[in-house]
Every structure is written in structure tokens, then in C-alpha cells.
Amino acid sequence: MRRFALGLLAALSLAAPALAGEGAPSAASRNPTVLMSPLALPVVVDGQVVNYVFVTLRLGLSAQADASKMRAMEPYFRDALVRAGHRSPFVRPDNYAALDDNKLKATLLRDAAALVGPGIVLSVQIVREQAQHYSGLPKPAVPPRR
Predict the structure, then answer these.
(1) What domain count does the chain have?
(2) In angstroms, rounded to a whole number, what is the distance separating the alpha carbons of residues 74 and 100?
(3) Residue 80: strand, helix, or coil
């Protein structure tokens, strides 16, 4: 009987932290996000594609957003961003191996509001940005920032 009581006490002590946290919402449920799969966006100079930049984005959602429904919308967000990137590329005049991050974020926020309604997607975070080429690119119109 003593062994049984000690085993039960040990099991309860291991389960207590998990039981205590059940009522408290996790950080993920308070601030749901959608991690988008990497996509390639063109860098176009004088009508010619000179590079592609692969970007991975995270969308910050409002607390009222249904995260599972927004994750299901991820292909639509990607499509909207690729279309916008081909219509008006996110080219930086000083660096053809990077994107205009502010323009990219503003475009995706605008397109996301059109897709799922205003106030659902609150932020866009660039998780990773990697150029296909770093050398052999044309000289930028503006000298690189230092």
C-alpha cells in the first residue's frame, strides 16, 4: 500500500504543472500567427528579372481570428503577394539582393484585409529573406546604404 501511495503521489506531482496551466490561455492562443511557406519574389530592373529573393513570412493575427481558418487561407495570401510582386516588384534601388521590406509588408497587409476582412491580419514579420544571387547583378541605381 505504501508503494502505491508513493507512486500516486509522484504521478500527481508530475501532472500538477500541466493541470495548473489548463485554465490559462497560452501565448499562441492569445497571439495566433500564420507561418507562410517560403516564396520567390522577382527583382526586376529595366523590365528584366535580375534576381529572385526567397522570403518566409509570419502573419500576426488578432485575438479574435480563427487561426485554423487563417492557416487554410495561406495559399491565397501567397498568391496575392506573388501577383503583387510581379505587377510592381519589391525592388530596392540600392540593393538587388534584397527586397523593399516596408512595401512588401504594406502590400500584404492590404491584400490580406481584402481577402479576410479588416483587422484580422495585424502584422507581417519577415522571418527569412535570401537572394538567389549575390554577385553578377547589375550595378544599383543608388549606392548601397551603409
Answers:
(1) 1
(2) 21
(3) helix
Q: Domain range for residue 44?
A: 27-131
The CA distances from residue 95 to 31, 33, 44, 51, 87, in Å, are: 34, 30, 12, 11, 19
Q: Is the pTM of this model over 0.90?
A: no
Query: Measured in Å, how far apart are the chain's first and last C-alpha atoms?
Result: 73
Alpha-carbon distance of 90 to 84, in angstroms, equals 9
Q: Beta strand pairing status for 48-61 and 39-45?
A: antiparallel
Cell numbers 481584402 correspond to 114
Other Cβ atoms closer than 10 A to 76? 13
Dump pLDDT digits (tens) for 101-111. Answer: 999 999 999 99
Encoded amino acid at 67, one letter: A
Question: Is residue 2 in some structural domain?
Answer: no
Rounded Cα distance, 70 and 72, in Å: 5
